[in-house]
Prior knowledge:
Blueprint: E1 2-4, E2 20-24, E3 29-33, E4 39-45, E5 52-55, E6 61-64, E7 67-73, E8 80-85, E9 93-98, E10 111-116, E11 122-127, E12 131-136, E13 146-149, E14 165-170, E15 177-182, E16 187-191, E17 204-208, E18 213-217, E19 228-232, E20 237-240
Antiparallel strand pairs: 1-2, 2-3, 4-7, 5-6, 7-8, 8-9, 10-11, 11-12, 12-13, 14-15, 15-16, 16-17, 18-19, 19-20
Amino acid sequence: MYTSSEAHDSDGEGKDEGFHRAHDISRGRVLFPFSANESGDAGAISPDGECVCLPVTRLYQSCTGSIYVLITCGENNRHPIRLYDIARKSGYAVAETTLEPSVSRVATFEATIATFSSEGRLLAVARSDNAVHMYDIRALTKGPLATFKHEELDAVGSAGYGAVHARWVEGRDRRRVGIVSGGNDGCVRVWDPLIASSDESQGKVLARTEFDVAYFSMGDIWTGEKPLVLGHCGGGLYVYDHLDGEGLPIS
């Protein structure tokens, strides 16, 4: 089990310390600490069983499917993103960069969730500035491959919570993948990593509500689960039996 602490940060300057550790829950002990010491934002583990090559130095490469990504928040709203080779039980980062600064009207932000694609090479990071950034972890230091942005529509006039959740979706043959995210515009949208971020087809609305998206969950329609369950910040809950072009709930 992997744990991170998020400090209260009463002065808003990101100077509070966070603690990040790997635990052996069967023995009730800490396996090792991670090198990061800033307040925790988000973390994710790559799928097991795949080989992901990470350039660490000119002389060494780590090849494993057990990669842990940890995103933290430090001073001056700086957000380091680090990769750890947990298959080797190492608490030292094998790759590190910093999240892009916010370009929205809200200068400060946090990473709300990080999630790997099924093959473990692509990483989606949802952020409270209403954007989702996609990275190739084999070239993490080159920055995001693509940025997907929800519209900034806020009916209640608050700052909102941004893109609160994201998950990967794929076709039955696993050849096409997409990212689904819910944002401050009250929409659950789907993004295609294979086409340009500026393409007009990007951000197709799967569902739309009158309040910020609080959370959503997508089921497997091939096993009889509902395609989409959506909760919004106004307290409403929608269950979608069918996702049509207008994003209308059909129960």
